[in-house]
Amino acid sequence: MPVSLPPALDPILPLLRCPSCGAALSPADGMLRCPRRHSFDVARHGYVGLLTGARATSGDDGPMARARRDFLAAGRYAPIRSAVAELAAEADLPGGLEGPATVVDVGCGTGYYLAGVLDALSGAIGLGLDTSAHALRVAAKAHARAAAATWDVFRPFPIESERVDVMLDVFAPRNPAEFHRVLRPGGVLVVVRPFGGHLAELRREVPQMVTVDPDKERRLHQALDPHFEMARTQEIEYTTPLTRQEAVDLVLMTPSARHVTEAELSDDGGLPDQVTVSVLATAYRRR
Ligand SMILES: C[S@@+](CC[C@H](N)C(=O)[O-])C[C@H]1O[C@@H](n2cnc3c(N)ncnc32)[C@H](O)[C@@H]1O
Ligand SMILES: [Zn+2]
After folding, report:
1. Is residue 3 part of a domain?
2. Number of alpha carbons in the 13 Å side-chain half-sphere of residue 241
3. Ligand 1 within 6 A of CB of 62
4. Does residue 42 fall inside a structural domain?
5. Within a domain: 4
6. Could you report the per-residue pLDDT of 159-198, keeping only the tens digit for each?
7. Residues contacting residue 133 through CB under 8 Å, at least 6 positions apart
8. Averaged pLDDT score across all residues of the chain
């Protein structure tokens, strides 16, 4: 029986290229296929498996993706999502006859920020890329206009050159040369990263969580500078209350806390009931 493709995948197909040979992809028997018959499964959960062959070395496991989904659903990071949506609007978005604006979120996780940007940009279509199938199960359902696919940010993207209006990179690994290649002239890259005292109260209680590297800003600038110029930065800093479960999820979704177990956290009475959120969100314009 032919499997129908997720509706959000259809409008994004003109953007996609076969990861093996670069040709266009089209639907065939519930899969995507290129004219040379390279084929890519669409998982029952709605994301496309573009990353075939060698396994990626990083990506959230099931418990991390679940913790991220639950923590973000509580809305404690909503101010970050609003800032990202505002900065996305810095792009020169296409007019009515040029087709919908396109948003690609790399290391999209559960698709929380991609969904926020799609809500803010009416009619825009989105694609979330991540190595984690666990996260993509959630991302594939994050928004009616968002498709999701497995991909490793460190490989050439399966995306046609100069087709993307907004690239998002929120707490995720980066590939500046590929961001530049796939963005249209006038497109923007929005980068969110931790700053200063981000989650300081939690870091004090949970030594496995690494501190923010003070040299990170300089290295980020150095890596992006050949391809991008800074357009606008928002510093987002606030204190948010945390339930005990939210504090646990916030630790468990953090990659540096990969080896902390929920049981260890539950034994420890010291989790804070509020935490400082401090991040920088920058819109970079493509050079
Ligand atoms: C800290 S999480 C951020 C997720 C999401 N942007 C958010 O803020 O909710 C980092 C994400 O990057 C993904 N990731 C890790 N290595 C990756 C890689 N090489 N390529 C693509 N995604 C990767 C992880 O699976 C995870 O979903
Ligand atoms: Zn092919």
Report:
1. no
2. 1
3. no
4. yes
5. no
6. 999 999 999 999 999 999 999 999 999 999 999 999 989 9
7. 43, 45, 47, 49, 150
8. 93
